[in-house]
C-alpha cells in the first residue's frame, strides 16, 4: 500500500532549515500530498497538505515539483521540539484512511 | 481543549481478558477513525465511521475486535480475548468530510495497550 518513499532518518542543526524529501512517483492526478509528524508517544499531528501548488502555513512550507512526483517539507527554523517522525502520505480527495509508512525520523541537534 | 480525547491513556491487561477503549472526537466532525500502531511502525488503519455508520474495516480488524459509534459522537473499540500480539498504541482520529474535499484527520493521544 505504500505509495511514498522517504529517507529513514535525518539530522538538522537547531535554527537551520530542515528539508525533508518525499518521492511519490506513482501519484495520481487527484491525489493530495499530506505531511504529518509524530513526536514520541503522542498521536500524529497534521502539518500541511497540497495538490499541485506550493503551500505555506505557520508550521511549514510544502514544495511540490511540477510533475508532482516528489515533494519537500521545509521547516524554516528547526527547534529541538521539531524532533519527531515525519510522514509523507498521498491520498485521494475522497479517500478515507491514511497509509503512513515508516516516515523519516528527524533529529534536531543543538 | 477541544481536540480528540481518548481514554484510558494506558491499559495493562492479562491475556484472555476483554478491554474497551473510548474516543471522543472533535464535536463537529462527522468521521471517526481507529488506527493501530506497533513499535517502529507508522499507524495502520483499522476502521472508520461516517456519523454512526461503520463504512470500512481493515483486514487487521479480526473477529475479536468490534467498534461502535452509537450516536455518531463518541466511539468505543473493544478487544475480546486479548492476545499478546494486540499490544500496541490504539489511535483515534476525526475529520470533517463534506462533499468532495480533502480534510485532514486530527489524532488523539492514543491508548497504549500492554497484554501480559
Structural account:
The complex is a heterodimer of chains A (110) and B (116). Chain A is an all-beta fold and 110 residues long. Chain A contains no helices and 9 strands. Chain A has a 5-stranded mixed sheet with strand order 1-9-8-3-4, with no helix packed on it. In chain A, strands 2-7-6-5 form a 4-stranded antiparallel sheet, with no helix packed on it. Chain B is mainly β and 116 residues long. Chain B contains no helices and 11 strands. In chain B, the strands form 2 sheets. In chain B, strands 2, 4, 5, 6, 9, 10 and 11 form a 7-stranded mixed sheet that branches. In chain B, strands 1-3-8-7 form a 4-stranded antiparallel sheet, with no helix packed on it. In chain B, strand 4 and strand 5 form a beta hairpin. Chains A and B meet through strand 4 and strand 8 of A and strand 5 and strand 10 of B.
Provide a concise account of the structure shown.
Chain A is an all-beta fold and 110 residues long. Helix content of chain A is 0%, strand content 47%. The relative contact order of chain A is 0.34.
